[in-house]
Write a structure and sequence with these properties.
By secondary structure, this protein is mostly helical. The chain contains six helices and no strands. The chain is elongated.
């Protein structure tokens, strides 16, 4: 491994991932995103719209919530190079959560499904945007550090 041509770059990426994962902002975003995803997954039973004509919306929220939690938790440390893309995928899940009551359930007669999904979706979207911004700023600073001092 020590003779690998990209060993310096690989070590640098690992160091950036370590620094990014240990910042209070990154840890807060990950924790809040995990909680948001878990709430979204459990929200049909918490808000009480898992029965009746909302069974498809309940399944949708369960799947999207688990997917969101998996995408957003641990992204800063384990997959630093892909964090930016993962955050954008999470943005799409947040936006989908906002429109899902109308697309999946059709005629939404209760306000609790709409309020639940709109608020949770907006929070998910904002957290994903924050994660994307954090990943972008970290990678820009890392590139400056990696290439700014290369000629010295």
């Amino acid at each position: 491994m020590e003779t690998h041509p990209d060993i310096v770059e690989m070590r640098q990426r690992h160091a950036l991932a370590e620094r990014a994962a240990t910042t209070p902002r990154a840890q807060a975003i990950e924790a809040l995103a995990l909680l948001t995803g878990l709430y979204l997954a459990a929200s049909p039973w918490i808000a009480g719209f898992n029965g009746g004509g909302f069974s498809r919306l309940a399944v949708n929220n369960l799947i999207v919530g688990i997917g969101y939690a998996l995408l957003m938790s641990g992204g800063f440390g384990r997959a630093y190079d892909r964090t930016h893309s993962m955050a954008w995928a999470a943005c799409a899940l947040g936006a989908w959560t906002v429109i899902a009551p109308w697309v999946v359930a059709g005629n939404v007669d209760t306000t609790r499904t709409v309020i639940n999904n709109v608020i949770t979706g907006l929070i998910a979207l904002l957290l994903a945007l924050a994660a994307s911004a954090t990943a972008r700023s970290r990678s820009a600073r890392g590139a400056q550090g990696a290439y700014g001092g290369a000629g010295r």
